[in-house]
Write a structure and sequence with these properties.
The complex is a heterodimer of chains A (433) and B (354).
Chain A lengths: L84 H26 L13 H10 L5 E3 L5 H6 L4 H9 L32 H14 L6 E6 L6 H12 L4 E7 L2 E2 L2 E2 L13 H5 L2 E6 L3 H16 L5 E6 L20 H4 L5 H11 L5 H23 L25 H17 L7
Parallel strand pairs in A: 1-2, 2-3, 3-7, 6-7
Antiparallel strand pairs in A: 4-5
Chain B lengths: L16 E3 L2 H15 L3 E5 L15 H5 L4 E3 L4 H14 L2 E5 L10 H8 L2 H4 L9 E6 L14 H5 L5 E3 L4 H13 L4 E6 L25 E3 L11 E4 L4 E5 L2 H13 L3 E5 L2 E3 L3 H11 L2 E8 L4 H13 L8 E5 L9 H4 L3 H11 L4
Parallel strand pairs in B: 2-3, 2-4, 5-7, 6-7, 10-11, 10-13, 13-14
Antiparallel strand pairs in B: 1-8, 6-12, 9-11
Helix pairs in contact in B: 1-7, 3-4, 9-10
The chains are: A alpha/beta (433), B alpha/beta (354).
Bound molecules: thiamine diphosphate.
Chain lengths: 433, 354
């Protein structure tokens, strides 16, 4: 240890040298995958506490997995939300629609129609089931991977695609990166590209609702990787201190771009267990079990609505696709992982459940797959009438300066005028509207 | 300690060179510094096994080991805070912030800690860290993959700010930054990682293989911090630029046929004021170009300095060409970007009475 203030020079030679632990995932490209070490408790085996139970009593619930669907497709145990087959069918359809939407928009990016896309493949249940368990006017503070909330709330696919294409129909005026939606009318907060900033904001929204004597609650989502950000911890502290009516969801899909969950602390503990230290209720849920996600969300919503405070829910799932269209997961993880994932495909599991209870069959499922694909295709056709990114720029130029402030100060007005003059000088394509 | 930070043979400077893009040049600088100094470590989101989302650290973990090149939790304040602590121990951390747009959670550790440690401890503790971060737009990255926040940091006493514009400079400057005993922010213009983008977004882009500065010595060399480079000598006016804008200015000047002197600042803090002053006194005109937003940007500081030192030599008002004072837009990216049209208009204005 040369220069600097290191103390290596005075190391005591009779002590063992310290070593630095750096986490390493179990499997890398080329490795055979065996997830035998992933502990999967039997469906129905976890107790369901009273929603008013003190947060100190949750230590057993943060290290297990709440599961409702068993291997035969039966819904079992105390967490079974006992939904009507009709609601379950609608949930299934929303998940199928989300998958079809993702598939088509991912391909649209590959075809050069937009700059960026992110799928939720394999974790569709997390957002969709939560949307069904929440009230329509509860406020969602999502990350970029909860487009399922919008789809489950019946938001217009064309509107979402317009945003993805930054086209003439884009309500956000092409200002944001594709998929960074903002849909106030669907209780869906403007998505930030900066990780976990939505977490304390959700807590703040919930505190405001409580302070005003409202009945609405808030919910936030972030990936397990994002729990490392300071904002996550600030949010948990506020949520605990003020017993904010908020549900804090951690989507543990095992990977944060190329970094496995161990780099967010998963080698040492679960993400749900973070709740224990903060003194808020914690639940750990099979994120590929739509009924379990529904049940946990419903439970947490009731807790929040009855002034018992926040719940932190870890959704244990798997990111089956690359991080985004900019990512190639084959570079850092084994190709075998998605198929070996022990919790299966959330759509297939819910489908099998409906079939098992005699409320669905393969033919109807295949027909539905076709139907949602057609619905997405039609929406795409509609959206593309408003243009796609790269086929000229569709926003009126002066919108560039809208929304920096409510009223435009002189320096922006000057710059706007300068830009329009440049436009005249340039003869660029979007001048010729 | 010796086991996890192995001694390596001193790599002598080699005379050979090879074609590199900016990412490869940065990778080479990191590799060489890790070979030369066992205290150099590389850390950041996705920099380890994967080698970084822009591949700047590719191969380094395999060669230098996991305790010297490692992935970190996704917490920028944690990354910089930990780097400060490692630096206090005596290491030379080179943390990466994946995009400059994500540096803000680390502001406190940079501004209140790294920048002030030497001062407040009267030199007992220092922060010999080099924070690498891709910055700038032109890639349809929207507002969170496009910003140029250098002006926030040049305003802070105690941090150096370096911005290369070529592979050759990137390597030599990065080596000097790592060897520097003070904290250095090393902003990498990602738009020119692969080639010297000239601002004409609708024309095919070049790559570094044909550019003279894409010829990079494979061994050790340093480019002193605080030294600007005159990339084009001329007498009609002085253009101050850095990063991507150096190439845009070069292309515009060539197209306009103006005999401009283009200065690539390379280091913003400490600034090479002598080169700037000599040039402006010679040409009598000064244009400042940066991609960052205008108000309170580094161009404002440059403008003040030139006015203070060269006022009686100026034949026209100083021109500032910058990004607009809005967040970086997605679809209207090229209306925002201070490209050839904006620079040409400013050129006409400043040369009007010449
Ligand atoms: C403050 C900040 N730092 C870094 C990034 C870059 N980044 C975008 S997504 C991502 C990984 C997030 O992983 P995780 O939280 O697990 O969510 P997932 O993508 O798996 O859904 C990173 C590092 C960012 N967007 N914002």
């Amino acid at each position: 240890m040369s220069n600097g203030s290191g103390t290596n020079g005075s190391a005591r030679t009779n002590l063992p040298p310290l070593t630095l632990h750096v986490p390493e995932p179990k499997f890398r490209p080329g490795d055979a995958v065996d997830f035998a070490e992933v502990d999967v408790p039997a469906a129905g085996s976890v107790r369901r506490p009273d929603t008013a139970e003190a947060a100190s009593g949750f230590t057993d619930l943060v290290y297990t997995l709440i599961r409702v669907l068993d291997d035969d497709g039966k819904a079992v145990g105390p967490w079974n939300p006992r939904l009507s087959p009709d609601v379950v069918r609608r949930m299934l359809r929303s998940m199928a629609l989300l998958r079809a939407f993702d598939d088509r928009m991912f391909r649209a990016q590959r075809q050069g129609k937009t700059s960026f896309y992110m799928k939720a493949l394999g974790e569709e249940a997390v957002a969709v089931a939560a949307a069904y368990a929440l009230d329509h006017d509860d406020m969602c503070f999502p990350s970029y991977r909860q487009q399922g909330l919008l789809i489950a709330r019946g938001w217009s696919l064309v509107d979402m695609m317009n945003q993805i294409y930054s086209n003439r129909g884009d309500r956000l005026q092409g200002k944001q990166l594709p998929i960074m939606y903002s849909v106030k009318d669907a209780g869906f907060f403007s998505i930030s590209g900066n990780l976990t900033t939505q977490y304390p904001q959700a807590v703040g929204w919930a505190m405001a609702s409580a302070a005003k004597g409202d009945t609405r609650i808030a919910a936030a989502w972030c990936g397990e990787g994002s729990t490392a950000e300071g904002d996550f911890h600030a949010a948990c502290t506020f949520a605990s201190v003020y017993r904010a009516p908020v549900i804090l969801n951690i989507v543990n899909n095992q990977w944060a771009i190329s970094s496995f969950s161990g780099f967010a602390g998963a080698e040492a503990t679960t993400f749900a267990a973070r709740a224990v230290g903060y003194g808020i209720a914690g639940l750990r849920v099979d994120g590929n079990d739509a009924l379990a996600v529904y049940a946990a969300t419903e439970w947490a919503a009731e807790r929040a609505r009855t002034n018992q405070g926040s719940t932190l829910i870890e959704h244990f799932t798997y990111r089956a696709e690359g991080h985004s269209t900019s990512d190639d997961p084959g570079q850092y993880r084994s190709e075998g992982e998605p198929n070996a994932w022990p919790l299966g495909d959330p759509i297939r599991r819910l489908k099998e459940h409906l079939i098992a209870i005699g409320e669905w069959d393969e033919e109807r499922h295949a027909a539905q797959d076709k139907e949602v694909a057609e619905e997405v295709k039609a929406a795409q056709k509609e959206a593309e009438k408003n243009g796609i990114l790269g086929h000229g720029l569709h926003q009126p130029l002066d919108t560039l300066f809208d929304g920096v402030f409510e009223e435009m100060p002189w320096h922006l007005r000057e710059q706007q005028a300068q830009m329009l003059a440049e436009e005249t000088a340039s003869g660029r394509p979007w001048d010729k509207k | 300690m010796s086991e996890i930070l192995p001694e390596t043979a001193e790599a002598g400077a080699e005379a050979t060179s090879s074609r590199m893009n900016m990412i490869q040049a940065i990778n080479s600088a990191l590799d060489i510094m890790m070979d030369r100094d066992p205290n150099v470590i590389v850390m950041g989101e996705d920099v380890g096994y994967f080698g970084g989302v822009f591949r700047a650290t590719a191969g380094l973990q395999a060669k230098h080991g996991k305790t010297r090149v490692f992935d970190t939790p996704i917490t920028e304040c944690g990354i910089i805070g930990v780097a400060v602590g490692m630096g206090a121990y005596g290491l030379r951390p080179v943390p990466e912030i994946q995009f400059a747009d994500y540096i803000y959670p680390a502001l406190d550790q940079l501004v209140s800690e790294a920048a002030r440690l030497r001062y407040r401890s009267a030199g007992e503790f220092t922060s010999p860290i080099t924070v690498r971060s891709p910055f700038g737009g032109g890639i349809f990255g929207g507002q969170t993959h496009s910003q140029s926040p250098e002006g926030i940091f040049t305003h802070v006493s105690g941090i150096k700010t370096v911005i290369p514009s070529t592979p050759y400079d990137a390597k030599g400057l990065l080596i000097a930054a790592i060897e520097d005993n003070d904290p250095v922010l090393f902003f990498e213009p990602k738009r020119i990682y692969n080639g010297p983008f000239d601002g004409y977004w609708d024309r095919p882009t070049q790559n570094w293989s044909k550019h003279p500065a894409g010829d990079v010595p494979t061994g050790y060399y340093r480019i002193e911090l605080g030294k600007a480079k005159v990339v084009r000598a001329g007498g009609a006016l002085t253009i101050l630029a850095y990063g991507t804008m150096v190439h845009v200015c070069t292309a515009v000047v060539a197209a306009a046929g103006v005999d401009a002197e283009i200065i690539d600042l390379r280091t913003l803090i400490p600034l090479d004021i002598e080169t700037i002053e000599a040039s402006v006194k010679k040409t009598g005109r000064c244009m400042i170009v940066h991609e960052a937003t205008r108000t309170g940007g580094f161009g404002a500081e440059l403008s003040a300095l030139v006015q203070e030192r060269c006022f009686y030599h100026l034949e026209a008002p100083i021109e500032r060409v910058t990004g607009f004072d809005t967040p970086y837009p997605h679809s209207l990216e090229w209306a925002y970007f201070p490209g050839p049209v904006r620079i040409t208009e400013a050129l006409k204005k400043i040369m009007k009475d010449a």
